[in-house]
Amino acid sequence: MSDSEAPFAPPPVIGLTTYLEQSKTGVWDVPASFLPQVYFDAVTRCGGIAVLLPPQPVSGMIVERVLESLDGLIVTGGKDLDPALYGQQPHDETDVPRPDRDAWETALLTGALQRQLPFLGICRGAQVLNVTLGGSLHQHLPDVLGTRRYQLGGGEFASVGVAVAAGSKLAGLLDAPGGGDEPQTLDVPVYHHQAIDRLGAGLRVTASTDDGVIEAVELEGAAFALAVQWHPEESREDLRLFAGLVEAAGTYARARPHPRQEAAS
Questions:
Q1: Quick one: CA dihedral 56, 228, 204, 175, positive or negative?
Q2: Is the model's pLDDT at 237 over the cut of 70?
Q3: Catalytic pick from 105, 215, 233, 247?
Q4: What burial class does residue 39 get, using C-beta atoms within 10 Å of its C-beta: 0-12 exposed, 13-18 middle, 19+ buried?
Q5: Which of 134, 13, 154, 129 is nearest to 76 (CA)?
Q6: Cross-referenced PROSITE patterns, in alphabetical order (predicted)?
Q7: Residue 21 is a catalytic residue
Q8: Is pLDDT at 264 greater than 90 in this prediction?
Q9: What are phi and psi of 263, to 5 degrees?
Q10: Which of 123, 140, 215, 234 is catalytic?
Q11: Is 234 considered catalytic here?
């Protein structure tokens, strides 16, 4: 078959989880699915198709049906996880639990990991990954570090330096050197008052700050399952993590049988 006769590969479909928040537009002030545009813009700019996944009632059947339609998954930022999920009482500064979103994202992530669906976690998404795999969180970093530099407040993102582990999937996406003893240093936008404490099963720390805050992890043995505590969608001129996810999702899509092939078999 010539190149001109080769079947067209459609763009991969990337699911992004959303917030459920009280939202006001025009005369309406109602609970609504919400996600900042920078998230799905990053996906589409990298060649993916963005599909939003609002919190909703969850079952094994529903999760399977959703994941069957996706080539990649992003668990986005947002409110704190319920501390009961990792065996703690809530800190005074911890957000009121959102059990609907916690259950929805945990179920989607668990199913995605089981089927090796390419996954990227962002901020809360990194925490969902860690807790789903049995880890825990620092509920309020100022208590641990004595500084609020990771969450300035008022929607203002801070910039912190992170050291990226050489030879990691993350380093490869960032074009960091694969060998040597010196990690790459990268400045990233952050807005979080919680962070990973006890590491979940199978996870490897791939980026951290000079005061020990874990800023990136990846699941060992997975084709593409990584998460960052920072907000890569805010670095609009540096979409390498999104590009890596879209590329992995395209590979995943091409590797599974096409519905017409299944029908013909």
A1: positive
A2: yes
A3: 233
A4: buried
A5: 129
A6: GATASE_TYPE_1 (PS51273)
A7: no
A8: no
A9: -65, -35
A10: 123
A11: no
Query: Which residues have a Cβ under 8 Å from the Cβ of 248 and sit 6 or more positions away?
Result: 72, 118, 223, 224
Question: What domains are there in the chain, each with its CATH number?
Answer: 10-139+193-264 (3.40.50.880)
> pTM of the entire structure?
0.92
For residue 10 the two structure tokens come to 């459609």
Higher pLDDT, 238 or 137: 137
From the candidates 46, 215, 231, 234, which is the catalytic residue? 231
